[in-house]
TrEMBL record:
Molecular function in Gene Ontology: GTP binding; GTPase activity
Keyword check for ATP-binding: no
Stated family: Belongs to the small GTPase superfamily. Rab family.
Name of the molecule in the record: RAB5D, member RAS oncogene family S homeolog isoform X1
SMART domains: RAB, RAN, RAS, RHO
Organism: Xenopus laevis
Family annotation (Pfam families): Ras
Entries under CDD domains matching the protein: Rab5_related (cd01860)
Length: 213
């Protein structure tokens, strides 16, 4: 499958498993849930339901000698849920802050999320910025260079993505997986302990065979 092309096969037996909590933040309707759905299930839904509270899913990325398992917290973007956000980003080792390249106000909101994370989340959190809906190039309102310059200045990973076409979705998670501190391998019991509360969550087991095609 095209959208799985960047996931590498590896040997069974010597694989180290590292588990990390990853949170998605960003304005409403920028495509957070769609990116997760694309990454975890390889699907896209034109009528993706609005997230209430937050949803939890899990998916793994296989690097050469390490399986990086992400516990993904997909938050609701509405302002009325803002006060819940710290519950999800607290203890997160990675965050994807998403904006919609056709809506400049969502880029401003993304910058505000980045600031909040840099002030209040774990000091070593790996933050990625995703300019989503790159398939809507004709409606683009945020230039690639503008977001890239901001990301560089702020020390973020940056990619333009499309949950619709799958462009850069696996690549984004793979790039984050590569930046995660592997020596900090957590045992699954510890990571499970850090999960927090599952509000309206549906737990998805990682696709079996993510490492093989
Ligand atoms: N064209 C296009 N539409 C998208 C993309 N990602 C999400 N959408 C649509 O944008 C709307 C909001 O998506 P959703 O995932 O619910 O956004 P969320 O509120 O950030 O979780 C839905 O109608 C999706 O089908 C994308 O990459 N391209
Ligand atoms: Mg959502």
């Amino acid at each position: 499958m095209a959208n799985r092309g960047s996931l590498r096969a590896n040997g069974v037996g010597q694989t180290k498993i590292c588990q990390f909590k990853l949170v998605l933040l960003g304005d409403m309707a920028v495509g957070k849930s769609s990116l997760v759905l694309r990454f975890v299930k390889g699907q896209f839904d034109e009528f993706q339901e609005t997230t209430i509270g937050a949803a939890f899913l899990a998916q793994s990325v296989c690097l050469d000698d390490t399986t990086v398992k992400f516990e993904i917290w997909d938050t609701a973007g509405q302002e009325r849920y803002h006060s819940l956000a710290p519950m999800y980003y607290r203890g997160a080792q990675a965050a994807i802050v998403v904006f919609d390249i056709t809506k400049p106000e969502t880029f401003d909101r993304a910058k505000a999320w980045v600031k909040e994370l840099q002030r209040q989340a774990s000091p070593n959190i790996v933050i990625a910025l995703a300019g989503n809906k790159s398939d809507l190039a004709e409606k683009r309102m945020v230039e690639y260079e503008e977001a890239q310059t901001y990301a560089e200045d702020t020390g973020l990973l940056f990619m333009e993505t499309s949950a619709k076409t799958a462009m850069n979705v696996n690549e984004l998670f793979l790039a984050i997986a590569k930046k995660m501190p592997k020596s900090d391998a957590q045992n699954p019991t510890h990571a499970a302990h850090n999960r927090g509360v599952n509000v309206h969550g549906s737990e998805q087991q990682p696709r079996s065979g993510c490492c093989g095609n």
